[in-house]
Structures are given as C-alpha cells and as structure tokens.
Amino acid sequence: MTDPALPSAPPERPRFESPPLGFGDQQELQQVEQKNNKVLWGIFGLLLVLTLGVVFLLPSLVQPVAPPVPVVLAPTEATAAAEPAPFEAAQRLRIRQQAQEVLDPLLDLQGQLEKQQVQAWAADAFAAALATAKQGDEAYGAQRYEQALAAYQQGLQALQVIAGQSGTVLAEKLAAGQAALAAGDSTTATAAFEIALLLDPGNGEAMDGLGKSRVLDQVLALLSAGQQLEEAGSLEEARSKFEEAQRLDGGNAVAAQALARIATARANANFAAVMSRGFTALQAGDPDGASQAFEQAAALRPGSAEVSAALQQAKDQKTLSAITVHLAAAAAAEAAESWAAALAEWKAALVIDPNLVSAQEGERRAQSRNNLDDFLVATLANPLRLGDPAVHAQTVQVVQDARNLLVPGPRLQQQLEQVDNLLTRAQVPIRVTLLSDGQTQVTLQGVGALGLISAHSLDLLPGTYVAIGVRQGFRDVRQEFTVGLDGQPVQLTVACTESI
C-alpha cells in the first residue's frame, strides 16, 4: 500500500508512440503531422492561459485551506517494468528516425523504377523488394523499429540492385530488339525497344530500332513483293518496291542489296545490249557503227578487256575494210586499164598498211603500166614526133617491149596498133612541092638549100619542117609546115615580097 502521509508522486507524462508508418503513406503522414503540429500549438497556448489564471486569479477567489498531507507512492514492479528506461526510449526514437530516413530513398527509387516500367523487365525482383518493404511496415506498426529498419534497408538494397541492373537490361533489350527485327517480329522488337527507351530515353539505337519496328511489317511486305517482281524479271517494278522499303527504313540492308543487285543487272543488260549492237554492226560490215557502240560500252564499263578487244576488232575491220575498198578499186581500175587511178588506189592501201605485199606489187605494176600509157597517149597525141629518128626508134622499142612482156588489154592493144600504124606511116615519104618567084633563095631546114626556084618537088617523111626565103632588099620569110601521116601531098609558096 501507499502511505497516505507521503506526498503523491507527480503524474506520469503520457507517452506518445509514433503511429505505424508505411512507406506507401509517407507523404500523407507528413501532411497529417503538419496539421497536428498546428493543433498542438493551439492547445499549448490555451493551457498557458489557464495556468496563468490559476496562478494569479484563483488564490484571490478561494479561501486558503490546510495543506494536504503528501502521500508518496512507491512504484510497483509491474509499473517499473512497463515503462522503458530513458536510454532505451532514446534508442527506440533514434532507430525509428533511422527507419524513416531509409524509407525516403526507398520510395524515390521505387518511383523511378516504376517510371522505367520495371514490371516489364524485373517484375519478380521488384515484387520481392516491395514485399520486404511491406514487412518493414508491419514491424513499424508494431513498434519493432529495429526490424522495420532492417526490412527497409533490405528493400532499399534490393531496389538498388535492380536499378544497377538497368544497364545490363538495356543491352539485353537492344539485342533482343535487333534480333526480333532480323527475325521479322515487329511486336517483340517494338516492346523491346520501348523498354530500352524507358531505361535510356535518349538512346539512339533504341529510337532507331523503334522506328524500324513500327514500319517493319510494311517494309517486309514491300521486300517480299520486290523479290517476287525481281524473280519475274520485272526489274523496274521491283526497284520501285525496294526504293519504297528503303524510304521507310533507310538502313535496311536487304533493300540496299536488292537495289544494288538490280542496278548491276540493269547495267549488265545495258552493257550486253550495246555490245550486241556493236557486233551486229561488225557483221554488217559497218566498223564505224561498231566502234561507236563499243565506245558506249567502254563508258559503261571502263577498263573492260572485252570492250578493248571489241574496239580493236572494229579498228581492224575498219582498216581491212578501207584496204579492201582500195584494193577493189585498184583492181577495177586495172581491169579498165585506168592505170593512174589504179596507182592512186594502191598507194592509198599502202598508207593504211605499208607492209601489204599485194599493194606493193600492185603499185609497181600500175606505175609501169601508167608510164607506158602516158608514153603511148603522148605519142598518139603528137604522132609527128615519130618523124624524129630517135623518137621513132624509142617508140619502136617500147612497143616491142610491151608486146613481149605484157598481156595487153583492149585499150593497150588498141594503143599499140595505133602506134604501129603511125610508126609505119611515119616512114612513108610524102611529095612536097615548094613554089617561089625565082628571085628568092629558098632553104629547107634539115634538108638543105634549094636555091632560086620557081618550083621544086621533093619527098619528105612526115614531120614538121621550116622553109626560109631570103632576097636582097626584101624582108626574109620563114614558113613552118607539116607533112602529115595522112599521105596527102603538100604544096607551099616561099617568096620574099615585102621590100625594106
């Protein structure tokens, strides 16, 4: 029992344990605590006013009474056991505060991971971390602050581990997205790249991959259509499909390879068509047209040995064609006994190919025949030259050589016969009668002086002669006359009649 004579012990201050504080209610609790603080400050002010009233006003209103006998109550063992010691209470308060301090970063990290859609890439680990944190809530609510602190720390560490794995998960998602793109799985690729962007919003590979995955189905359809058209030989239509796929997905390797393949096929087709046109021209004997086609092929495929060989072939044919033309022209000229023309054609062929034996032989033959032709033509044009013994003898020799060494054609044969006839007639004298006045001295050059004659006849071989008349006191006369090969006699008057 307590002793009534002892003064009573001051009443025990009520203890206010913190209500259970879960990490999910942290923000709401902070708001409630701010409101409670305002209420407590109001209550404190009211108690202060009442206290002042009791101290200063109440003694004047109440009659003094005998002081009560103080009763001192000794604490029982049960009471002492229920109330923690001050040091223990301070430790509990400190641990509770530590638990609250751990809870703040835990909540922040939870929110950050949820923004990164952690449930999509670490759902089990995230759920386990939250379960551990909720165990801390239960311990906190039961005022087991050490257990709550340990649970919160364990939950925070678990979330930190998950956050530290984001780089690895990012790489895995990027790889999975690329693999899905390669496999043509747009759904999987889109999901992977979306998670990668949640983990790293500025990641270029993820943004590029997401863009590709969103058009992947359309691109695959275009690629499939393009490949079918290409296999069917519709290269232009196929190229259009591949270009559209490349427009949607600029980095698509299949489209790029297909376009390169089609470009190569078109280039090969163009090259083959041009080369074919060139060879057709060669077969048609058109080396100029062939060369033009092969030059176009060289522009399409520079340095091609095939083109070089074709160009050489065209050049050879052009050379051969030109030589053939000259050879044919030379042969035709020889057949027509147009030896000057034949000589010109042989010379033209030798300009193209100086080593052409047939042209060398033709040139010598044509030169000889052309010289003969020139001689015979000159003789026929001026047959009176045959009256000159030297010229006559030379002509006889030339005609004899021509008959012995050559097989004369119609022209040469005719020329030889004409010259033979002239040679014969050139040796037949013609009666020439010179008339004068008997007072003029007449001299016939190449024959001699005839003296003062009235008429004088003599036989002269065909040719050109000069008769000179001289008389004292008169102007000399000089008369040139021709004794023709036609056999007609010639009559000429030579007399000086002009006095001086």
CA radius of gyration: 70 Å
Q: Structural class of the secondary elements?
A: alpha+beta
Poorly predicted tracts of residues: 1-21, 23-34, 61-81
Mean pLDDT metric: 83
Order of helices and strands: HHHHHHHHHHHHHHHHHHEEEEEEE
Q: What's the story with the biggest beta sheet?
A: 4 strands, antiparallel
Percent helix, as a range, is 55-70%
What share of the residues does DSSP label as strand, in percent?
A: 5-15%
Strand order of the largest sheet: 3-2-5-6
Report the CATH topology name of the domain at 303-427.
Serine Threonine Protein Phosphatase 5, Tetratricopeptide repeat
Number of helices in the DSSP assignment: 18
CATH class of the domain at 303-427: Mainly Alpha
